Amino acid sequence: MITSEQQREIAFRVREHCIRMATRGGCFIGASLSCADILVYLYTNFLDVFPDTLQDDDRDYLFLSKGHDVPALYGTLAELGFIDKNRLQNHLKTNDTIYWHPNMNVDGIEFYSGSLGHLLSVAIGVALDCKIRGTQNKIVVILGDGELNEGSIWEGLLVAQAYKLDNLIAVIDRNEFQANIRTEELIPLEPLTDKFRAFGWTVSTVNGHDFDNLHDVFSTLSFESGKPNVVIAHTVRGKGTPSIEARADRWFANFTEDEITQLLAELHGGRMAELTSETLIVR
Amino acid sequence: MNYETLLQNLIELDEKYIVLTAENRAAIRNLPAKIGNRFIDVGIAEQTMIGAAAGLALRGRTPIAHALAAFLTLRAFEFIRTDVGISGLPVKLVGGVAGFLSEANGPTHQAIEDISIMRGIPPMGIFCPADEEDMLIGLEKILESPQPFYIRYNNLPSAVTHSGHFAIGEAEMVVEGSDVCILVYGTLLREAVKAASVLASKGISTRILNLRTLKPIDSEAILGSINWCQLTVTLEDHFLTGGLFSIVAELLLRRKIKADIFPIALENRWFKPALLNDVLEFEGFTGAAIAEKIVNELYR
Predict the structure, then answer these.
(1) CB within 8 Å: A111 and B58
(2) Is B46 a catalytic residue?
(3) Which residue in A57, A111, A125 is closest to B53 by CB distance?
(4) pLDDT tens per residue, range A175-229
């Protein structure tokens, strides 16, 4: 079994990939860094899906509903051999399909996303089919906390509990930010645990950057019979690079090559980067 | 045979079919007891139904999703466009009480822009049967098709005796004629037939094409009729914008053909809510009213 030290090493490389994608057009760097550890954990220790089982009906599924953090998924899929690492250099180029939101032309990406509030319902469809067929697949959908503003999420929460989809696990990347503003300052979500419980889901919370804690929670997930599961993962936007963490109100960044060099040095333990790039706000 | 029985038969024969509804059971009331867990009612949640349909299609199913046409195509539009359109998954959308069939419900329930918005989604096909018989003749091929389809559900009694031959993209020649050609789909076929008999009494020979699928459209049948007849009428219970008239206009522009086209459609407003026959009367869509409009157009 993989150790948490090995997972940390993979996540470190995933962060490097994310930072390298934040130039020459940029990417949604903050959210990518907040969910990088969750993705690495799920793919290395929880999901039964591998590059050679991607077409198997009995594989586990991961749906990235908050699609703008796809650099972390590209990086994870590259590190784990689902896609060629060289493809990451094609980020935003017309000769490939490595763009700002997930698409199914990338091996390992199960569905298109980018429009928030969609993939809970798509995951519900897959979970329903697995229930009907009596198969044991686990279906994970990663949701952003800002994404919880969407009404379709709350429809889906109702439907999933009505159909007793205990094979469904929603993971909330709780980095406490909407696009530009803290969730609690714009559309407050708390008490979030109570909301999910009231909707009939089993709720767990976890430190989304601590592999031992992730392991404790996911390996003991109650999978309470007849109840869908939600794991609220507390995370930090920009995690791993204090200078991006400090600018967490900016969610899309297009850095200069120099700034990328500084950020990589910072990730490796150097001093904080001096960021001067104007950050775009795009949704 | 009715819609429900045909669905049940197909579902029993082929495990890929699965039925969804957003608590609109009018057409499928007896299915739950017969098909068990392959009937999924998500409640009044059209967006979740469409997303779930895409998820089921990812697992190899062909979901047949039901809701009232207005809520299916409008409330869930972005889910249809994004989860079904972008992926091209074979999700079949069955819209109830489209066009004049919403009768007295009022404008909230009037799906009279459904053709317009569904045809703007690249892989989406559109099937608008004239009545229940026409729907049953085409249904199996529509469901079997690998592309997503929007079906304007129609369970009215037969307007005419239909040709049993059906192919996607092929219109049905209902009546041969040479002076006027009426291009029509759905509920108004029966009124077109009545109009033709009024016109015949005035010595005007009318051809009627029941278009069946509006996307793909039978361009050659339409162009052949336009070429053959003096006047071509597009007849539809849909806004003038984006429906059959627009489809024909686009076709003629693309082929650089000039023709005399007379549209009969709803012009920029919702229709008077009432029972079907009263709607037709009030809005001028009875056979007699249609014939009168055509005569006026011919001799103006």
Answers:
(1) yes
(2) yes
(3) A125
(4) 999 888 899 999 999 999 999 999 999 999 999 999 999 999 999 886 789 999 9
Angle (nearest 5°) at CA A160 between A129 and A199: 170
pLDDT tens-digit readout, B58-75 = 999 999 999 999 999 999
Contact A121 B58 (CB under 8 A): no
8 A C-beta contact, residue B63 and residue B57: yes
Contact flag A121-B78 (C-beta cutoff 8 Å): no
Burial class (CB in 10 A: 0-12, 13-18, 19+), B88: middle
User: B213 pairs with which residues across the strands?
Assistant: B127
pTM for the predicted model, two decimal places:
0.96
Q: How many CB pairs under 8 A join A and B?
A: 94
Q: In whole angstroms, give the CA distance from residue A273 to residue A22.
A: 14
User: Which uninterrupted H or E stretch holds B39?
Assistant: strand B39-41
Average pLDDT over residues B18-44: 96
**Rounded CA gap, A199 and B278, in Å?**
46
Interface test with A, best of B48, B62, B87 (most A CBs within 10 A): B48
A126 touches chain B (CB under 8 A): yes
Predicted ipTM of the assembly: 0.95
Choice among A159-163, A239-243, B84-88, B194-198 with the minimum mean pLDDT: A239-243
Check B48 against A159: CB less than 8 A apart: yes
